[in-house]
Amino acid sequence: MGRLRQLGRTWRTARHLRLRQLWFTVWRRLRPPRPNLTRPYPSLRPLVMGWTPGAPPPVSLIGPDRMDLLGVARRIDSPDVWNDARIPKLWLYHLHYFEDLIAPDAAARRGEQIALLARWIAENPPGVGNGWEPYPISLRLAHVVAWVLGGAPLSETLHASLSVQARMLAASLEWRVDGNHLLANARGLLFAGALLGGEEGDGWLAQGMALWNQLLAEQILPDGGHNERSAAYHAVILRDLLDLIQLFERVVPHAPVTAPLDMWRQTAAHMLDWLAAMRHGDGLIMQMQDATLHGPPTYDALCDYAHRVGVSTPLASEAAARHFADSGYARLQIGAARLFMDVGAVGPAHQPGHAHAGTLGIELSLGAQRLLVDCGVSEYGESAERLRQRGTAAHNTVCVADADSSEVWRGFRVGARARVFDVSVIKQEGKAMASAWHDGYVRLSGSPRHARYVRLEAGSVIIHDRVIGAYTHAQARFLLHPAVTLEVDDDGVGGRWRWPGGVGRWRIERGAATIEDATWHPDFGCVRPTQRLCVTLAEQESRVWFGWESSQYA
Description:
Strand 20 (512-520) and strand 21 form a beta hairpin. This protein has helices at 3-14, 19-30, 89-97, 110-123, 134-149, 156-170, 179-195, 198-219, 231-251, 261-277, 299-308, 384-390, and strands at residues 61-63, 66-69, 72-75, 321-324, 329-334, 337-342, 362-366, 369-372, 398-400, 408-409, 413-414, 420-428, 431-438, 449-457, 460-468, 474-479, 485-486, 494-499, 502-510, 512-520, 528-536, 541-548. It has an eight-stranded antiparallel beta sheet, with no helix packed on it. The chain has a five-stranded antiparallel beta sheet with strand order 4-5-6-7-8, with no helix packed on it. It is globular, with a radius of gyration of 24 Å. Helices cover 31% and strands 23% of the residues. The protein is of the alpha+beta class.
C-alpha cells in the first residue's frame, strides 16, 4: 500500500476518535505511569467474608507448572514465560489474569495457586512486562481479591503487591482504548478498594464507582446490548456487573461510596434479556463481532448467578421477529429455525476494535444444529489470518470486487465503515422477514450498494441479494457448519444438504454456484475445516433457497 493510501486509511480511522482518546494517547507517551513503591500500603478494610464465584471460568491450572489457556496447554516453569515473545500475546495475557483462582474447585489447588502467585510477584518486577499493562492488572486484581474474600490467605507480600498494582492501575486508566477495557479498569479499582481501605482505598472506590457508572450508562444501549456488539463481551461485562452487585451488597455493604444496586439490577436484567435473544437452539451465543462459543460465561450460568444476587431473569422469547435497533441485529424465529442478521453499524464510532466487515451477514440454526455459521475468531494480533477472519469474504454476506465492506486493518482498527439504511424487520402469519442495504462499497468505482432481503418460513429460508450500481464482480457467500455437507445435482444449481439427523434441499434461483473449502473458528485456537457455498451474482442479483423438513423439528 502506498504512503498516501496509508495516510488516508489512518485519517479515516482517527477521525472517529474521541478527544479524550487522542489526548491520553499523547499524554501517556509523554508521561508513562510509574509504580509507586514508597508510600505505606493501605490497611485492610473490615469485610464480610464468603465470596462465591458466579459463572466461573474453566480450570486452567492443570499442574504445578502447567497452564491450559485458550485450548493450548503449556509449561510455565521458566521465569521468562510471562513475556515470552514466541507465545501469542493473548495467551500470555490470560496467564497474567489468574482466572484459575475463581474456577471450580479452586480450593483443591490452593497450594499451587499460592506458589504461582508468589512466582508472579518475584518474576514480574513492578512496571515491567505484560502483566503490568492496565487490562491484565484490572482482571488480576478482581480475581485475587475475590479469591481472598473466599477464604484464601493474604500474605504480607501479596498485600504489598496488590497495593502497588492498584496504584499503577489508577495511574494508567485506558482512556485511549476506552470500551470494555475501561470498564474492566473501573471494576479492578472497585475490587482493590473493597479489600484495601484508608485514604488510598477510599479513593480507588470513589474513582472506580464514578467511572463504572458513567461507562455503564454509555456502553449499555437502550435495547440492552453492549455497544461493541459482541455477544461474548456482553456476557463478560454482565458477569462483571453481577460480581459488583455481590461485592457491594454482601462484602462491603457499608462502603464509603454508595452503590446504585437497584439500577445495577435493572441493567443486569435488561442485559440478560438481550443475551437470551442472541442464542441459537444449542443454547450458545451467535458469533458475530469477535465472539467465541465457549470462552465467555454461558447464558444459563449467568441466569443462575443473577438469581443468586437478586436479579430477575427473563422469560424465554419466541417472538417471530425482533429488531434490536440500538445494537444493530435482527432476530427471526419460525418454529425451531433461528436466523440472525447484522443490520447495524460496525460498532461504536470511537471504538470498533472488535468489528468485522460482515455487514448484512447472517447465521442460521435449526433446533440445536447450526447450519450457516459466522467465521468466528481463532486469534487476535496483527497476523494475516486475523485480518482474513475480519474481512468480508469470510462472512455470510456479499463481497463486491474482493473488497471489504468496512476497511478493517491491523488487529483492531477500522477506517471507512459501512452504514446501514432502511432496516425492516416484520412478521406475518407463518413467516418473518428482514431487509436492509448498506453503502460500504460506494467508495469503489461505480459506487455499488448491497441490499439484502431474507424471508424465514416453516421449512425454508430465502436470501435475496442485489448490488445496485456498476461493479466488476460480486459473490454471496455462505459458510456451513462442519457437520453440514452439500450434495450437488447434475444441473449444478441445487441439491441436498445433510446434517446429523436431518436432510434438506438447496437451490440457486438466480446466480451461479461453486463450493470451496473453508474453515470455521468457534473458539480461540480452534480451526475446523468445512465448506462454503459461493454464489456469483447474475445481472446484479442472487437468490438462494435453503429448505428442510420442518415436521422433524416441530
